[in-house]
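Example: OmpA/MotB domain protein.
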Amino acid sequence: MSRKRKKTDISGTAWINTYADTVTLLLTFFVLLYSMSNVDTQKFEQISVALNNMFTKNPAESLLNDKNPEGEVPIVGEETPQKDAEKSVDLYSQIQQLIDKNTLQGQVKLTKDERGINIELNEKILFDSGKAEIKTDFATTLNKISEIIASIGNLIEIEGHTDNVPISGVYKNNRDLSYARANSVLEYFASRGISQNRMVTKAYGEWYPIKPNDSDANRAENRRVNILIVVPGDNK
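Written out as structure tokens, the predicted fold is:
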């Protein structure tokens, strides 16, 4: 007669041991990484929150007992909005000081928007009407701007803008003219040692005016080249 097998007494909470071991091993792994490198504390806490959410579905607490009242887990590796804002303000102040130091106040206009910091150049001082060749008497100003760009490592977008008055001649439309002008500025900066890997051109033509094209004064303001210093995080 065959011997009966004993029934194994499986407790309903036996899984907790495996769960606890897994969490402990994961936490030990990240603590080990932390001890071997210089990790941003805030980012480490973000990882902790993410792991806690994975296992407990409770976004209110982290494995480091750091309270997160919003219940949100920021993406690891990104700067916080506060740090991004501080960087943007610092860079704006730095560029403003360089503009003042180089006495460029009357030739450029410094503004800031959600994309970054704009150094705006009026078309009239850069180019002759309907042309894309940079005036030789403006070279000194561009040289100073190139020095400012060289002193920072941000991506540079060079934007060409025009008014809405139709043109004729070499360029078939305003967008072509705006591209040629933006490209002329890019090539000039490249000749001054700025890496082309850091620069891109954008041709907007008449499509993004800053004033209504209803007067000579307003159209003059719309004819411009913007040198956008991209600030990561500003568009969040």
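The CA atoms of residues 159 and 202 lie 5 Å apart.
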